[in-house]
Amino acid sequence: MKGAHIFLFIFVMWILIIIGGGILIVFTAPISIIEYGALDSFFTSGVKAVIAITLVAIWIYILSKIKNWIFHKHLSH
Amino acid sequence: MLNQTIPVVLVSSIAFFSVYVTTPFLIKALEKRNLTVKDYNRVGGAMVPRPGGPSIIIGILTSELVLYVFFPTVEIIAILVTTSLAFVVGIIDDRKILGGWFKPVALAVSAIPILLLGAYDSNLAFPLFGSVKIPALYLALIVFMIPITGNTINSIDVLNGVASGFMIIASFALTVSLFIIQNYEIALASLPLGFVSLAFYKYHKFPSRIFPGDSGALTLGAMYGVIAIVGHVEIIAAVALLPAVINSFLFLSSVKRIIEHRAVKSKPVAHTDDFKLMATTDKDAPVTLVRLILAGGSMTEKQIGGVIFKLALFSAALAIITAFMMGLKI
Question: d(Cα B242, Cα B315) in Å, to the nearest integer?
Fold first, then answer.
C-alpha cells in the first residue's frame, strides 16, 4: 500500500500521545508543594510545567528516532 | 437533543451555502483585479485566483453569529474573535511577503481573546488516565495552540484541494468526538468549520478554481485550534491533525529553523516528463509529507491528494477512538 510507513508513523505517534498522557497524570497530577504559603500554587504549577515540557522534549526526541528508523530507506533517497 | 435540530440544520446550511454562493463572485473579483498565482503543478501553468479567505470568513462569521442567537456563550465569541484575527493575519500575509516569524507571533496574539474571555478550562484531559490541572502551562498551551494549528493547515496547502479536503475530515472527526464526549454546544459551534470547508472544497479540488491563500488556511486552522481549546478536546484535535503535524515535524526537523516555505531554495518535489510529481534527490531539500509519499514512485497531483485523505481518515478514526477512550479509566 502507498504510504504504509506513514500510517505506521501516525499509529506510533498516537500510542506515544496516550503513554505520555498517562505518565503526565500518574506522576505529575499528584504533585503538590505545601511549604511556601501563598506561593504554593505558583511552585506547584511551575514544577508541573517543567515536567510537562521535559516530557514533550523527550516525546519529540523519541519521535525523531522513530522517524529515522521507519523512514530510513525513504529518507536516504 | 431534539431542540438542537433547528440550530444544527440552520447553522450548517448557512455555513455551506454562504461559501458556495459567494466564492464564484470572489473568483470573478480576484480575476478582475488580476490577483492570481501560477499553478505550477498544472500542465501549461494555469493562473488561479487567490485568496479564498474572504468567502471562508463570511461563512464562518454568519453561521457562528446565527448560532450565538440560539446559544449566547462566551465560547462562541472566542471562536468569532480569534478566527477573525487569524483571518486578518492571513490577509496581511497574502498581500505582503513577511518574515517567517510574523505568522506565529501574530497568531499567538490572536489567541489572547480566549484568555481575556476566560473561555477555557485548565484541566487537560487524556484518554484512559483522566485529566491533569496545569493552570500556568495551560495559558502557554493556548498561546502556542493557535499558531500551531494555523501554520500546520497552511503548511499542507501545497496541492489542489488538500487543505480544504483535509479540514473537512479533521473537523467532522472533531464534531463527532465532541458529540461522543457530550459537549453538544461546542459540537454545534464546530459544524460551520466542516461545512465551510466542504463548500470551499467544491472550488478548491483538482483542478482548483481558487486557492485559499494564507487568509483561508490560517482561518481554518485557527478556528480548529479555538474549538479544541473551548471544547476541551485538545488531545483529540491533535490526533485528528496528525498527518499535517507530521508534515510540519518533518519540515522543521529537516530545515531546523522556522522559515517560510517560499524561502526554501531546494525544492522537495519536481515534475516528470509526463507532468507527474516525483521526489527530488536534493539532499538540501526539506523532507515533507508529499516528498515522503512520492518516495515510493511518481504520482499525479490527484493521486497524492488521495493518499493524504486516506491518512486523514485514518487519523480521524484514531481521534474518534480517542474520544471513546476519554470515558474509560484504567
Answer: 6
Contact B201, B91 (CB under 8 A): no
Residue A48 at interface with chain B, using a CB cutoff of 8 Å: yes
pLDDT at A76: 57
The CA distance from B39 to B321, in Å, is: 38
Q: What is the pLDDT of residue B263?
A: 64
Residue with cell 448557512: B14
Residue B258: predicted pLDDT: 63
The span from the CA of A71 to the CA of A73, in Å, is 6
Phi/psi at B328 (nearest 5 deg)?
-100, 150
Beta bridge partners, B130, equal B126
pTM: 0.92
Chain B residues whose CB is inside 8 A of the A44 CB are: none
Inter-chain residue contact B243 with A63, CB threshold 8 Å = no
Where does residue B170 rank: exposed (0-12), middle (13-18), buried (19+ CB within 10 A)? buried
Which residue among A17, A26, A49 places its CB closest to the CB of B239?
A17
Q: Answer for the pair B250, B311: CB distance below 8 angstroms, yes or no.
A: no
Average pLDDT over residues A26-44: 80
Task: For residue B71, report the phi and psi dihedrals to the nearest 5 degrees.
Answer: -130, 85
Residue B173 · residue B223 · CB < 8 Å: no
Q: Is some CB atom of chain B closer than 8 A to the CB atom of A69?
A: no
Q: Which residues of chain B have pLDDT under 70?
A: 1-2, 256-265
User: Taking CB atoms and an 8 Å limit, are A21 and B239 in contact across chains?
Assistant: no
ipTM of the complex in this document:
0.88
A10, B287: Cβ pair inside 8 Å? no
